[in-house]
Structure formats: structure tokens, C-alpha cells
Write the C-alpha cells for this entry.
Amino acid sequence: MSAVDRTATEKTRTRYQRIAPYYDTMELMAEGRMADWRERLWSLVEGPRVLEVGVGTGKNMPYYPEDMQVTAVDLTPRMIERARRRADKLRIDVDVQLDDAQELDFDDAIFDDVVSTCVFCSVPDPLLGLEELARVTRPGGRLLMVEHVRAANELLGSVMDLVNPLAVRIMGANINRQTVENVARSPWEIERVEDLGMGGIFKLIVARKNAPAD
């Protein structure tokens, strides 16, 4: 496993610290469609021990299934503050913690499901993050993701590559990550990938951590 790039991670934290007070407003136009995808994603969660990585301001909280033990983490203190306020407002029992997807402060194999929503566009080292999620998930546990990826259309993909540096500077997110391929290269075994919309840019990804052979 590679080491965490502290400089890149701090840049990511700083960007999201800066935009945290405006984050919900910045994404307001997209949230109508995202709400359906969030509901779909969380309907697949089995738990009972669930880790949400990149909780942000807590937009997934209204969709948490009942009778789940959810731990939600984020890299950014200001995001954590807003997530905790949302949890209080919704009266949701969730353990919200400051943590880094690339080096989680949890023991091995303690979660049944791990969930992310538009997070791995921002994790500085996505493969390291995926390895770390696998570490804290039990054998047979699952990874469930809604993520945006680089367009398969090469012309549009090239435009996304060109615009990506500006997108990262403004929003903090890479718009040209190849997250399906990254999951396939990680310890996870992909079970299915569904196109959600926007010409296949948004994907639902379900993967499983294989149990060790006897």
C-alpha cells in the first residue's frame, strides 16, 4: 500500500473547508436528480454496520435505512460541523467523525457495507482509498457507490480532461476520474455497474470484498 500524500490531502481539505459554507447552494440545481440516486443507493444497503465515506454536509442522511449502525466520516472539519447539525435536525443516530478515506482510524473488517456518493472524484489517491475501504470491510461485505466518471465518448472525455484543472480549483472534484476502472484495479470485485444518467457519466457501482479461500 502506498503512503498518503500529505500535501495533496491538505490541499483537498483546504478546498472543501473553503467551500463548505456554500456547498449545498452550489449543488442545489443537481440535487433534484441526485435525490433519486441517493434513495436508490441506500435502498441497496444491507448493513447492519455501515460506513459512509465523505459524508459532506449529510445529504444522504434522510435516506439512511432504519436499524442500521451508521458511522459517517469526512476529511473536512467544516463539513463535519454541518453534517452533525443535519443529523441533530433530522434526529438521526449516526456517529459522525473526522477521518481520511486513505487512512481510516478503524480496525480491520468491522463494517458490513461501505457507501460513497460523489467522493472518489476528490480522494487524492483513489486506489489507496479503495484499498483502505476494503481493509475495514468484512470478507463478503460490499462497497456501494454513486460516482461521476470521465465520459466514454472520447470527444467529451477530452473536454473534461481539458476543463478538469479548473473544476478542481473551483469545486475540489476531478471530473475525469475513471472510477469504475479504479474499483476493478482495487481489492474489490465489481458485481454490477449501472448507468444513472448524463450520458453514462454518473454510475451506480456495487462491488464485494471476497472472502479468503479456505
User: Anything to note?
Assistant: Helices lie at 6-19, 23-26, 28-43, 77-90, 126-135, 154-171, 179-185.
